[in-house]
Design goal:
about 140 residues, alpha+beta, CBS-domain, three-stranded mixed beta sheet, two-stranded antiparallel ribbon, 5 strands, elongated
Amino acid sequence: MRVADLLKKKGSSVVTLPSTATVEQLLATLDDHKIGAVVVVDDDAVVGVVSERDVVHHLRGGRDQTSRLSDVMSTDVHAVSAQDDLDQLAATMTEQRLRHLPVIEEGALTGIVSIGDVVKARLDALAAERDHLEDYLRRAP
Protein backbone atom coordinates (compact mmCIF):
# COMPACT_ATOMS: atom_id res chain seq x y z
CA MET A 1 0.00 0.00 0.00
CA ARG A 2 1.19 3.50 -0.81
CA VAL A 3 0.65 6.86 0.87
CA ALA A 4 -1.68 7.82 -2.00
CA ASP A 5 -3.95 4.86 -1.16
CA LEU A 6 -4.10 5.93 2.47
CA LEU A 7 -4.93 9.53 1.53
CA LYS A 8 -7.77 8.32 -0.71
CA LYS A 9 -9.36 6.70 2.34
CA LYS A 10 -8.66 9.32 4.99
CA GLY A 11 -8.70 12.46 2.90
CA SER A 12 -6.06 15.02 2.15
CA SER A 13 -7.06 17.95 4.34
CA VAL A 14 -4.26 19.36 6.46
CA VAL A 15 -4.56 21.83 9.30
CA THR A 16 -1.91 24.53 8.96
CA LEU A 17 -0.84 27.66 10.78
CA PRO A 18 1.70 30.36 9.92
CA SER A 19 4.96 30.58 11.86
CA THR A 20 3.72 33.86 13.35
CA ALA A 21 0.84 32.13 15.17
CA THR A 22 1.22 31.80 18.92
CA VAL A 23 1.42 28.69 21.06
CA GLU A 24 -1.96 29.72 22.47
CA GLN A 25 -3.45 29.66 18.95
CA LEU A 26 -1.79 26.32 18.31
CA LEU A 27 -3.29 24.78 21.44
CA ALA A 28 -6.76 25.98 20.43
CA THR A 29 -6.27 24.58 16.93
CA LEU A 30 -5.07 21.19 18.18
CA ASP A 31 -8.03 20.97 20.56
CA ASP A 32 -10.62 22.22 18.04
CA HIS A 33 -9.54 19.69 15.41
CA LYS A 34 -8.67 16.86 17.85
CA ILE A 35 -5.23 16.44 16.28
CA GLY A 36 -1.69 16.07 17.57
CA ALA A 37 0.28 18.24 15.15
CA VAL A 38 0.00 21.14 12.74
CA VAL A 39 2.03 21.81 9.62
CA VAL A 40 3.53 25.30 9.68
CA VAL A 41 3.21 27.03 6.32
CA ASP A 42 4.48 30.46 5.23
CA ASP A 43 3.84 31.74 1.71
CA ASP A 44 2.59 28.31 0.57
CA ALA A 45 5.83 26.62 1.68
CA VAL A 46 6.13 24.10 4.51
CA VAL A 47 8.57 25.59 7.02
CA GLY A 48 7.98 23.31 9.98
CA VAL A 49 5.82 20.94 11.96
CA VAL A 50 4.73 21.58 15.52
CA SER A 51 3.34 18.84 17.73
CA GLU A 52 2.08 18.30 21.24
CA ARG A 53 5.58 17.08 22.13
CA ASP A 54 7.10 20.38 20.95
CA VAL A 55 4.63 22.34 23.09
CA VAL A 56 5.34 20.27 26.20
CA HIS A 57 9.08 20.82 25.75
CA HIS A 58 8.51 24.56 25.19
CA LEU A 59 6.28 25.05 28.23
CA ARG A 60 8.44 22.90 30.48
CA GLY A 61 11.32 25.19 29.59
CA GLY A 62 9.48 28.03 31.33
CA ARG A 63 8.29 29.78 28.19
CA ASP A 64 4.71 30.96 27.83
CA GLN A 65 1.89 30.63 25.34
CA THR A 66 2.57 33.97 23.65
CA SER A 67 5.65 32.59 21.90
CA ARG A 68 5.50 32.29 18.12
CA LEU A 69 5.46 28.91 16.43
CA SER A 70 8.76 29.82 14.78
CA ASP A 71 10.29 29.46 18.28
CA VAL A 72 8.65 26.09 18.96
CA MET A 73 8.34 24.16 15.70
CA SER A 74 10.61 21.48 14.34
CA THR A 75 12.22 22.88 11.21
CA ASP A 76 13.91 19.66 10.13
CA VAL A 77 10.78 18.52 8.28
CA HIS A 78 10.72 14.91 7.15
CA ALA A 79 8.24 14.74 4.29
CA VAL A 80 6.93 11.86 2.22
CA SER A 81 5.52 11.56 -1.27
CA ALA A 82 2.26 9.96 -2.33
CA GLN A 83 4.23 7.11 -3.93
CA ASP A 84 6.04 6.08 -0.74
CA ASP A 85 5.34 2.59 0.59
CA LEU A 86 3.53 2.38 3.94
CA ASP A 87 5.64 -0.50 5.24
CA GLN A 88 8.83 1.50 4.69
CA LEU A 89 7.13 4.58 6.10
CA ALA A 90 6.17 2.68 9.26
CA ALA A 91 9.78 1.61 9.75
CA THR A 92 11.07 5.15 9.21
CA MET A 93 8.52 6.66 11.59
CA THR A 94 9.39 4.11 14.26
CA GLU A 95 13.16 4.39 13.88
CA GLN A 96 13.19 8.19 13.83
CA ARG A 97 10.38 8.59 16.40
CA LEU A 98 8.25 10.65 14.03
CA ARG A 99 4.49 10.73 14.53
CA HIS A 100 3.40 13.12 11.76
CA LEU A 101 4.78 13.50 8.26
CA PRO A 102 3.55 15.98 5.66
CA VAL A 103 2.95 14.68 2.17
CA ILE A 104 4.55 16.95 -0.41
CA GLU A 105 4.18 16.59 -4.16
CA GLU A 106 6.01 18.93 -6.53
CA GLY A 107 6.61 21.38 -3.69
CA ALA A 108 2.95 21.50 -2.63
CA LEU A 109 1.48 20.19 0.63
CA THR A 110 -1.05 17.52 -0.36
CA GLY A 111 -1.75 15.72 2.93
CA ILE A 112 -0.41 14.50 6.23
CA VAL A 113 0.19 10.99 7.54
CA SER A 114 0.25 10.12 11.21
CA ILE A 115 1.55 6.98 12.86
CA GLY A 116 -2.08 6.28 13.77
CA ASP A 117 -3.03 6.37 10.08
CA VAL A 118 -0.28 3.86 9.30
CA VAL A 119 -1.30 1.53 12.13
CA LYS A 120 -4.97 1.70 11.08
CA ALA A 121 -4.08 0.89 7.47
CA ARG A 122 -2.02 -2.10 8.59
CA LEU A 123 -4.79 -3.36 10.89
CA ASP A 124 -7.35 -2.98 8.08
CA ALA A 125 -5.09 -4.96 5.74
CA LEU A 126 -4.65 -7.72 8.33
CA ALA A 127 -8.40 -7.91 8.91
CA ALA A 128 -9.05 -8.15 5.17
CA GLU A 129 -6.46 -10.91 4.85
CA ARG A 130 -7.98 -12.78 7.81
CA ASP A 131 -11.46 -12.49 6.28
CA HIS A 132 -10.16 -13.76 2.95
CA LEU A 133 -8.46 -16.75 4.60
CA GLU A 134 -11.54 -17.58 6.66
CA ASP A 135 -13.69 -17.45 3.55
CA TYR A 136 -11.21 -19.66 1.70
CA LEU A 137 -11.25 -22.21 4.52
CA ARG A 138 -15.05 -22.28 4.63
CA ARG A 139 -15.15 -23.07 0.92
CA ALA A 140 -12.49 -25.78 1.09
CA PRO A 141 -13.75 -29.28 0.29
